[in-house]
Amino acid sequence: MIRLENIEKVYRTDTVETLAINGINLHVQKGEFLSIMGPSGCGKSTLLNIMGLLDEPSRGQIKIDNQDISRYSDKQMANFRNEKLGFIFQSYHLINDLQVLDNVELPLLYRNSSSQSRRALATAALEKVGLSNRTKHFPTQLSGGQRQRVAIARAIVGQPQIILADEPTGNLDSAMGNEIMDILINLNKNEGTTIVMVTHDESMAQKTHRLVRLFDGSQVQ
Ligand code: ADP
Ligand code: ADP
């Protein structure tokens, strides 16, 4: 589903050059739930952002669903990203002055769907994460675990084939973290969604199919 070949990423400024990713080869299977671990600064977020087409590698090739992304224009890339990928972040990234339902509808605004069908899809996504009773709340009126569930609903509302999650349980206590993991595991099992998750938490990583460890931009396991 995601194929990375000889990926390198160098961040350059006037004074420093950082080799953030140093020759990664990785194949994420369709339907796989993969976790990525490693110490702070080892390149986890960079790798996830490259997989998510949010950041370009300095070298190497990415294929998603057998499409060679490197030939895409920015617009094609944005469309592809919107259609195929869903993102979840540690700090939720919800819009605080929009109600829950409107937050979840956001990714659908790029598509030519009617407001009725947007509403129906967002309502269904909120049902899947068990938040049907919070559609008119604002994010600030929710707990951290509930906010992350809204973020998951937003990530899945467009029915992406792939979910990329950057420390989705990082701001949550272990009970809420486990709830979030259960939702992701069910999504993977029941809908066949491919998931790549960065985590610091060994116990969360153990629940996934495969663990990749990074150190200084290289894969060590
Ligand atoms: P992790 O997610 O594992 O903590 P990152 O992918 O955020 O690691 O960062 C990997 C390395 O790249 C770090 O050494 C970091 O300092 C560097 N880095 C990340 N983003 C930038 C940037 N925008 N400019 C320069 N260096 C960066
Ligand atoms: P943190 O670990 O500091 O909370 P996040 O996990 O929220 O960071 O974000 C991880 C990466 O994704 C960052 O490099 C950030 O710039 C990027 N990012 C965050 N939100 C968005 C967004 N809505 N769209 C695109 N990129 C984002």
From TrEMBL:
<keyword id="KW-1278">Translocase</keyword>
<dbReference type="InterPro" id="IPR027417">
    <property type="entry name" value="P-loop_NTPase"/>
</dbReference>
<feature type="domain" description="ABC transporter">
    <location>
        <begin position="2"/>
        <end position="220"/>
    </location>
</feature>
<dbReference type="InterPro" id="IPR003593">
    <property type="entry name" value="AAA+_ATPase"/>
</dbReference>
<keyword id="KW-0813">Transport</keyword>
<comment type="similarity">
    <text>Belongs to the ABC transporter superfamily. Macrolide exporter (TC 3.A.1.122) family.</text>
</comment>
<dbReference type="InterPro" id="IPR017871">
    <property type="entry name" value="ABC_transporter-like_CS"/>
</dbReference>
<dbReference type="InterPro" id="IPR017911">
    <property type="entry name" value="MacB-like_ATP-bd"/>
</dbReference>
<dbReference type="GO" id="GO:0022857">
    <property type="term" value="F:transmembrane transporter activity"/>
</dbReference>
<keyword id="KW-0547">Nucleotide-binding</keyword>
<dbReference type="GO" id="GO:0098796">
    <property type="term" value="C:membrane protein complex"/>
</dbReference>
<dbReference type="GO" id="GO:0005524">
    <property type="term" value="F:ATP binding"/>
</dbReference>
<protein>
    <submittedName>
        <fullName>ABC transporter ATP-binding protein</fullName>
    </submittedName>
</protein>
<dbReference type="GO" id="GO:0016887">
    <property type="term" value="F:ATP hydrolysis activity"/>
</dbReference>
<keyword id="KW-0067">ATP-binding</keyword>
<dbReference type="InterPro" id="IPR003439">
    <property type="entry name" value="ABC_transporter-like_ATP-bd"/>
</dbReference>
<dbReference type="Pfam" id="PF00005">
    <property type="entry name" value="ABC_tran"/>
</dbReference>
